[in-house]
From TrEMBL:
Keywords: Transferase. Residues 8-117 form the Glycosyltransferase 2-like domain. CDD domains: GT_2_like_d. Pfam families: Glycos_transf_2. One of its GO terms (molecular function) is hexosyltransferase activity. The keyword Electron transport does not apply. This is Glycosyltransferase family 2 protein. It comes from Thiothrix fructosivorans. It comes from the Bacteria. The keyword Transmembrane helix does not apply.
Length: 300
């Protein structure tokens, strides 16, 4: 029997309020050669009951249900799911979103076209726009990319400081999974790290058509809110730490100029005040957009 072509990776945590709508949207996918691989991150509500009931009703659709009782947090939970996966195409899934019926079909087709062009050994990632809604599915923004003013065609260097890829809107191939995971401890988020690796060593393809409802509520781990200036210093530390682990894992793959750029970002967390600002200017450690860089120099 031929293996399932798509595995949807779902990390749950106290998601009883949202899970039924998500699972219903998965059942309505026009492309049905998929299975769900689930890891629960230590839920204390009715999440497990909902999952076990769904498993009983759709046994052929559940590739696995990991119930180790540990609370690892979102990024490490998703990393465990990638490590447990086996399919050639993988898709991250958040418990509180609603997928449009064509999501799996559109992204799987786009990924296969990329593999035909670049080969299966190339790390490949496709990601789509999202419709932003509130907890009651009232419309907040028809385009998440416009809402956040994302430049989804950004150069690979920009991924060191600026992520435009949302995990629940992605599909990626086996080569990307093997290269990017398991997740390093100081990776900022699973989607941010995956996008960084694919941008530098493979291909990232944006799909402008929104493919899901991106629900915003008080319990979002990241969400759609614009970044706040008062957190910029902490994010600068995180960017720098992530650059350091990126360099440790992939330094031998980089040419001299690339190595120097990543090393410059990795060294940023060891500097403060005017020396940090001077370092940013000297090595051109810039984010997309003039205002973003003014804020970086003022508040980093």
């Amino acid at each position: 029997m031929e293996a399932t072509r798509v595995q949807i990776l779902l990390s749950t945590w106290n998601g009883e309020r949202w899970l039924p709508e998500l699972l219903a949207s998965l059942e309505q996918q026009t492309f049905q050669d998929w299975q769900l691989l689930v890891r629960d991150d230590g839920s204390t509500d009715q999440t497990l009951r909902i999952l076990l009931k769904w498993q009983a009703e759709h046994p052929e659709k559940l590739a696995g249900l990991v119930l180790d009782g540990n609370h690892l947090g979102s990024k490490l939970s998703f990393s465990r799911l990638v490590e447990a996966s086996t399919a050639p195409c993988l898709m991250f899934c958040d418990q509180d979103d609603v997928w449009f019926p064509e999501k799996v079909a559109v992204q799987y087709t786009a990924l296969r076209r990329l593999e035909a062009q670049y080969g299966e050994d190339t790390p490949l990632l496709v990601h789509a726009d999202l419709v932003v809604v509130d907890e009651n599915r009232a419309l907040q923004a028809v385009s998440f990319w416009d809402y956040r003013d994302f430049d989804v065609e950004q150069r690979k260097q920009a991924y060191l400081l600026n992520n435009v890829v949302t995990g629940c809107a992605t599909a990626f191939n086996r080569a990307a999974a093997v290269l990017a995971f398991p997740l390093p401890l100081y990776a900022m988020e699973h989607d941010r790290w995956l996008a960084l690796v694919c941008a530098w060593f493979g291909v990232v393809l944006p799909l402008s058509h929104p493919l899901l409802l991106y629900r915003q509520h008080a319990d979002n781990v990241i969400g759609a809110k614009p970044a706040r200036l008062e957190g910029l210093s902490a994010r600068t530390e995180a960017w720098s730490q992530q650059a350091e682990v990126f360099l440790h894992r992939f330094g031998e793959r980089l040419n001299t100029q690339e190595y120097q750029l990543v090393a410059a970002l990795a060294g940023l967390r060891h500097l403060q005040g005017w020396r940090r600002r001077q370092h940013i200017l000297q090595h051109r450690l810039f984010k997309p957009g003039v205002l973003n860089n003014v804020a970086l120099l003022l508040f980093a």
